[in-house]
Amino acid sequence: MDYLAGIHVVSTALNLPGPAACARLRELGARVTKVEPPSGDPFEAYCPSWYARLHAATEVRRIDLKSDAGKAEIGELLAGADLLITAQRRSALERMGLDGATLAQRHPRLCHVAITGHAAPDEDVAGHDLTYLAAHGLVRPPQLPPTLFADMAGAERAVSTALALLLARQRSGRGASQPVPLEDGARALAEPLHEGLTAPGAILGGGLAGYNLYAAREGWIAVAALEPHFARRLADALGLAGLETGTLRERFTAETAEWWQRWAREKDLPIVAVRLPSEETS
Fold this sequence. Notes:
This protein is of the alpha/beta class. It has two domains: 8-193, Crotonobetainyl-coa:carnitine coa-transferase, domain 1 (Rossmann fold, 3-Layer(aba) Sandwich); 211-273, 2-Layer Sandwich (formyl-coa transferase, domain 3), CATH 3.30.1540.10. The chain is 43% helix and 15% strand. It contains twelve helices and nine strands. The protein has helices at 17-27, 42-46, 48-54, 68-79, 90-96, 100-106, 129-135, 149-172, 182-194, 228-238, 245-252, 257-266, and strands at residues 8-11, 31-36, 59-62, 83-86, 111-116, 177-181, 211-215, 220-224, 271-273. A six-stranded parallel sheet has the order 3-2-1-4-5-6, sandwiched between helices. The chain has a three-stranded antiparallel sheet with strand order 7-8-9, with helices on one face. The model has no long low-confidence stretch (mean pLDDT 96).
């Protein structure tokens, strides 16, 4: 996809959300230049294989943005760039001359997505994926979340914000700076829970027979026959008058999870075998 052909993105964002956002922009056709400190991105040390995939076809430069020479070098980069993505705290951006006010003066056509942990006035409050999720009821101790929900949601929010800024610049001729707080992504992810949809026993929290997890003869299956037409089709396929949790529990133990997945595919039903994190997905 070359929708963003001709767009040059410069990023100083380390760790996960920024590189994930840049990888998506690159998939859409943008050219990406990543600026890392002389010590590199910590992400490369704790997950080298994923770091390599996210930075494929990305030009990576090591620049000391605390030095005068480094500030001059990134200034040259930004002079020909369309979009800057940062993930440093506001105070750090101000010291490097990469805050929104300074960028507007020096590079008026540059669009700037500032990935932060929290919204103003708490941009400098420390946080990470785990704390954002915990603050909004998305952690169930003692288990840690199975993935980095806030970081990945934040990456997608950064992309959509970048596209909006680029579109607005096309109309006005001027760039703008917009923060993307990761905590906002966590808050949005928590809305179904706080609205009662996914609370234990709620309609999407185990209270609906057609939307639930069931043990098979081997493994587990996820059944998502939420809409009435899917519920009717599932009941008809099983020879039932309607869907009831106890009856489905008994029926689904008759075959393996893989068997039920193949069966559901043939009957156009939303049922899949549950893949555990340790299992290879196909």
